[in-house]
Amino acid sequence: MKYINDHLEEFFIIPLMFLMSIIIFIQVIMRYAFQNSLVWSEELARYMFVWLVYFAVSYTARREKHIRIDAAINIYPKKLRPYIEILSEIIVLAFSAFIAVTAITVFQKITWSGQLSPAMRLPMQFVYLAPLVGFVLTSVRQIQCVIRRVKALKNHEEVAEA
């Protein structure tokens, strides 16, 4: 379980990046060397990129590397900063949970519409599932982060008291 927890996003990101690069490379060769274009390649690469982006959002949350303004945190006194960091992680958690809930509605509407992609005739629900999966994973990673920061804060306080 620890291995899965530590590497879940990479399990998807690496193959997506590799396959996307291969598909785009083949498309370039087909277009310029053979003067013929593959109809499906650009669409598939685009959808793979969408999935890659949403897994990357979760990956950055797990690594605690998501965008934040350190200068805003650094204006607070050092004793207050751990609390401000926990608050900022909770705000990111609330945002990711909101996006996940919103993504459920969008996914349901696309599923009910039966919309298909233009070139590959792929059900669009698979594409619109990416934000849902990505932000559910991000929410889980943010919960883990908040728990880690609270434990670290408690340990620091216990050490300071001793």
Description:
The protein is mainly alpha-helical and 162 residues long. It is 80% helix and 0% strand. It has 5 helices and no strands. The protein has helices spanning 2-33, 41-62, 70-74, 81-113, 125-161. Helix 1 (2-33) packs antiparallel against helix 2 (41-62) and helix 2 (41-62) packs parallel to helix 5. The model has no long low-confidence stretch (mean pLDDT 92).
Mean pLDDT: 92
- Rg measurement, Å: 21 Å
Strand fraction equals under 5%
Share of helical residues: over 70%
Which stretches of 5+ consecutive residues score pLDDT under 50? Answer: none
Largest sheet, strands/sense/barrel: none
Order of helices and strands: HHHHH
| DSSP strand count | 0
For the termini, the CA-CA separation is: 35 Å
Count of helical stretches: 5
Would you tell me the structural class of the helices and strands?
A: mainly alpha
Coarse shape: elongated
